[in-house]
């Protein structure tokens, strides 16, 4: 074998690889494993939901889905990370609505555009936020809480664990014309510690944690949403008092970055449409405490876009509250 | 008797081949992951988390619990042999263990650290088994003002750590405090010191920081040195019983360090590094031989290693008793329960006793596993020193690159670590201490965020910030303890000086 001959063969192999090795425009998706960026810490609420969804989705798509946690900055870091990946469908995101939407509204440095950056493919749960207090608090429902706040302006402390809670507080303060102080914590667990330890009066927390909180001596002041859990039929609803905070309900959603080929979005959407019918998926998510409320494709997009304006109005009016101190 | 009946039931569940194997494998994996620079127990836990979902709850918990326990010891191995802490919790172990290795006492150092880890681990698990309810309730008393004060106490430990030049230490700790503020501020959602650079927006996390300052700077300093052909290995025979006896000769140090580990563990969200620094600093302040510290003090080594393993049991106390994780690693472990549909909260022990009790007794098994692995391994670990430096450095650097990346799967973390490596070299050449940088970085958010939370809480009252803090009983207790501690130190030093003069 001459040196020239060898070179020729290598050149031919290289050309052949380049010509035929590159994927054709519409090769079957998925042909390898998919990364799922979760912009939150491992073991947290969104992470748990994302992993459950991933376990069903991967069976339907026929390939492994690998969750990758990229927590930090309330999810902003992971979202930016997601936007920087190739839009080939092999990196999807599990974002937690409404946090990233609010970040887009209030944070100028956040290079994410709620309408232009990602395709919203599906969400399965929508868990509203509620207000809880300890059992011995001198108010049993939102009306009494508001009365107490009016009688003692600026004296109540409410723990919050994220930007959505702050928008919620701003909305409530605006609606009832009251004033209370927010104390920020890094996570729902830390704000719960603060409540149990008597360091704050009230906390905002999702509906998922009602059993825990009541077990530890807490009570619901105002429940988000309209469905009371079976074992707590006599709790007050936010809507009982004429205010709704449901536009801030937490929805982990599956997204792809804009620019992802249509056949990929379609494949994922079809898979989501199949798994939404599986009773086990609903069971597992409800076990985690989430409220089942599936929305897929354009239905989800419309839901999100509808909530944008309500949120924007409140957030911009109360920018200082939302941005905290 | 119900007690005996329950214990036999628990034992019968534990002494099963699958549980024992998972315990051993988990602990071994933890030791390995802890030893590799840049990887830590937390990373090891998140790596095997998906696997644990496929196991039964108890199996998953014991596997991850083993990783947590083993990881706290593993970092000591590379810390002692190479002056590269495998994990930030082994920083103080490096400070004492590496000089010992340089004196040819590497095996001795390894034995001290494994036995101290075992003692600490046992005390931590015993606290979990016997004192969970009162300790968990006690932990709730610590709100933001108290944790802020505790953070300040932690900073004061820096003074105890570095004897000579106070100003240089102050500078180092300030750099550490500052570095940790780079990135997004969680409370205001604004970016600080990031200059619109995305790499800085992520913040400087502790893994690249420790890797850079210790591992890379150490390896950079070794470049160009003639020690490429050198190796530190010395064949010494060490009597294990002797080491155990020596540790037990200073019972106060051992018990105090373990208690500090447990107490820091029960505080929500605060992890092992804080416990180690506190324990080490307190040990040095109370030591009768403070001049040995930094040159191979077994007392300091024991203080550090006992604290970090005691923290494992401590961090699981609020996790299991209240459903509130005592440390980031404990948070991930608790998600195993959540994913299996187990409601975590204060009724875990009554609603799912078969899981809760089996797990906490199973943790004792992880300590045993760690003992077996550690003691068996010492023979072989110290042989690493037989390898010439010119082979060790590249291998360690490659592992460190992987470690830096594995923290958050960011390539930029590697660049950060390398840059900080250069900073570390600069500091070392100028004789500035490096440990205070790490202490500052670890304590920075604890101090800053909790102070700001205190201000938020205080804004709902009429009091000014000082009165607000002082009026809280828990804060008063902390301040009182600190006063007593300092008074004790001052008196003791005064009397020591008088004795010297006389």
Task: Please tell me the CATH architecture of the largest domain in chain A by its name.
Answer: 3-Layer(aba) Sandwich
CA(first)-CA(last) distance of chain A: 76 Å
- Which structural category fits the helices and strands of chain A? alpha/beta
One letter per element, helices H and strands E, the order of chain A comes to: HEHEHEHEEHEHEHEHEEHHEHH
Largest inter-chain interface?
A: A-B, 56 and 56 residues
Radius of gyration of chain B over all CA atoms, rounded: 22 Å
Mean pLDDT of chain A: 87
Q: Which CATH C-level class of the largest domain in chain A is it?
A: Alpha Beta
* Overall helicity of chain A: 40-55%
- Strand fraction of chain B: under 5%
Number of helices of chain B: 22
Low-confidence stretches of chain B: none
Description of the molecule:
Chain A is an alpha/beta fold and 325 residues long. Chain A has 2 domains: 34-127 and 250-323, Bordetella uptake gene, domain 1 (D-Maltodextrin-Binding Protein, domain 2, 3-Layer(aba) Sandwich), CATH 3.40.190.150; 129-247, 3-Layer(aba) Sandwich (D-Maltodextrin-Binding Protein, domain 2). In chain A, 43% of the residues lie in helices and 19% in strands. In chain A, the strands form 2 sheets. Chain A has a 6-stranded mixed sheet, with helices on both faces. In chain A, helix 2 packs across helix 9 and helix 4 crosses helix 11. Chain A starts with a helix and ends with a helix. Chain B is an all-alpha fold and 502 residues long. Chain B has one domain. Helix content of chain B is 75%, strand content 1%. Chain B has helices at residues 2-14, 17-35, 41-53, 57-82, 91-102, 106-140, 144-161, 166-179, 198-201, 206-222, 240-249, 251-266, 272-285, 298-322, 328-339, 348-351, 353-381, 389-408, 411-429, 435-458, 465-470, 473-501, and strands spanning 183-184, 191-192. Chain B has a two-stranded antiparallel ribbon with strand order 1-2. In chain B, a hairpin with a 6-residue loop joins strand 1 and strand 2 (191-192). In chain B, helix 5 runs antiparallel to helix 14 (298-322) and helix 10 crosses helix 19. The radius of gyration of chain B is 22 Å and the shape is globular. The model of chain B has no long low-confidence stretch (mean pLDDT 86). The interface between A and B is large, with 56 and 56 residues.
């Amino acid at each position: 074998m001459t040196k020239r001959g060898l070179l020729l063969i290598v050149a031919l192999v290289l050309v052949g690889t380049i010509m035929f090795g590159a994927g054709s425009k519409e090769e079957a998706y998925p042909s390898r494993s998919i990364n799922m960026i979760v912009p939150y810490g491992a073991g947290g609420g969104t992470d748990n939901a994302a992993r459950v969804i991933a376990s069903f989705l991967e069976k339907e798509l026929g390939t492994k889905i690998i969750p990758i946690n990229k927590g930090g900055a309330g999810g902003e870091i992971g979202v930016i990370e997601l936007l920087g990946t190739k839009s080939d469908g092999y990196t999807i995101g599990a974002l937690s609505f409404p946090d990233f939407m609010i970040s887009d509204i209030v944070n100028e440095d956040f290079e994410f555009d709620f309408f232009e950056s990602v395709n919203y493919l599906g969400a399965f749960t929508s868990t509203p936020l509620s207000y809880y207090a300890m059992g011995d608090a001198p108010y049993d429902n939102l009306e009494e809480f508001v009365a107490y706040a009016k009688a003692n302006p600026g004296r109540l402390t409410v723990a919050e664990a994220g930007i959505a809670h702050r928008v919620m507080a701003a909305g409530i303060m605006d609606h009832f014309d009251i004033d209370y102080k927010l104390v920020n914590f890094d996570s729902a667990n830390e704000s719960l510690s603060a409540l149990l330890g008597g360091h704050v009066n009230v906390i905002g927390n999702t509906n998922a944690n009602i059993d825990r909180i009541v077990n530890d001596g807490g009570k619901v002041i105002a429940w988000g949403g309209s469905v009371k859990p079976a074992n707590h039929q006599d709790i007050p609803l936010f809507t009982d008092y004429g205010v709704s905070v449901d536009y801030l309900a937490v929805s982990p959603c599956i997204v792809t970055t804009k620019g992802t080929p249509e056949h990929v979005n379609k494949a994922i959407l079809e898979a989501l449409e199949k798994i939404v019918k599986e009773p086990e998926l609903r069971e597992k998510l409800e076990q985690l405490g989430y409220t089942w409320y599936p929305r897929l494709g354009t239905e989800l997009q419309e839901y999100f876009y509808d909530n944008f304006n309500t949120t924007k109005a409140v957030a911009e009016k109360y920018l200082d509250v939302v941005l905290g101190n | 008797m119900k007690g005996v009946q329950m214990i036999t039931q628990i034992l019968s569940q534990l002494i099963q081949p699958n549980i024992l194997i998972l315990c051993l494998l988990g602990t071994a994996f933890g030791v390995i992951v802890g030893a590799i620079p840049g990887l830590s127990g937390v990373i090891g836990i998140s790596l095997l988390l998906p696997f644990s979902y496929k196991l039964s709850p108890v199996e998953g918990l014991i596997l991850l619990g083993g990783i947590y326990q083993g990881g706290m010891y593993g970092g000591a191995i590379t810390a002692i042999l190479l002056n590269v802490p495998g994990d930030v919790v082994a920083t103080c172990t490096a400070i004492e263990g590496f000089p010992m290795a340089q004196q040819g006492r590497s095996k001795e150092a390894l034995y001290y650290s494994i036995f101290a880890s075992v003692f600490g681990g046992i005390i931590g698990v015993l606290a979990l088994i016997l004192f969970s309810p009162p300790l968990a309730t006690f932990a709730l008393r610590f709100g933001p003002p108290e944790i802020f004060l505790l953070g300040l106490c932690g900073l004061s430990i820096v003074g105890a750590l570095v004897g000579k030049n106070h100003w240089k230490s102050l500078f180092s700790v300030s750099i550490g405090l500052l570095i940790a503020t780079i990135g997004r501020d969680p409370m205001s959602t604004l970016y600080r010191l990031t200059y619109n650079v995305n790499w800085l927006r992520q913040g400087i996390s502790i893994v690249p920081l420790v890797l850079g300052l210790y591992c890379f700077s150490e390896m950079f300093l070794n470049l160009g040195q003639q020690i490429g052909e050198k190796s530190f290995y010395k064949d010494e025979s060490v009597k294990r019983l002797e080491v155990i006896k020596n540790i037990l000769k200073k019972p106060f140090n051992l018990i105090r360090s373990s208690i500090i580990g447990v107490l820091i563990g029960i505080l929500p969200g605060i992890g092992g590094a804080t416990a180690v620094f506190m324990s080490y600093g307190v040990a040095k302040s109370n030591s009768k031989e403070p001049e040995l510290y930094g040159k191979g003090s077994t007392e300091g080594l024991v203080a550090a290693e006992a604290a970090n393993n005691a923290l494992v049991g401590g961090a699981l106390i609020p996790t299991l008793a209240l459903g509130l994780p005592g440390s980031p690693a404990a948070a991930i472990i608790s998600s195993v329960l959540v994913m299996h549909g187990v409601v975590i909260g204060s009724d875990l022990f009554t609603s799912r006793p078969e899981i809760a009790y089996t797990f906490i007794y199973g943790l004792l098994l992880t300590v045993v596993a760690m003992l077996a692995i550690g003691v068996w391994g010492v023979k072989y670990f110290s042989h690493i020193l037989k390898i010439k430096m010119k082979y060790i450095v590249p291998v360690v650097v490659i592992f460190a690159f992987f470690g830096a990346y594995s923290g958050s799967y960011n390539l930029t973390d590697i660049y950060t670590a390398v840059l900080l490596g250069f900073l570390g070299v600069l500091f070392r050449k100028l004789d500035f201490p490096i440990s205070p940088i790490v202490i500052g970085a670890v304590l920075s958010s604890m101090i800053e965020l909790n102070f700001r939370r205190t201000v938020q809480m205080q804004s709902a009252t009429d009091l000014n910030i000082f009165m607000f803090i002082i009026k809280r009983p828990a804060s008063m207790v902390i301040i009182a303890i600190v006063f007593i501690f300092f008074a004790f130190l001052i008196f003791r030093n005064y009397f020591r000086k008088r004795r010297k003069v006389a």
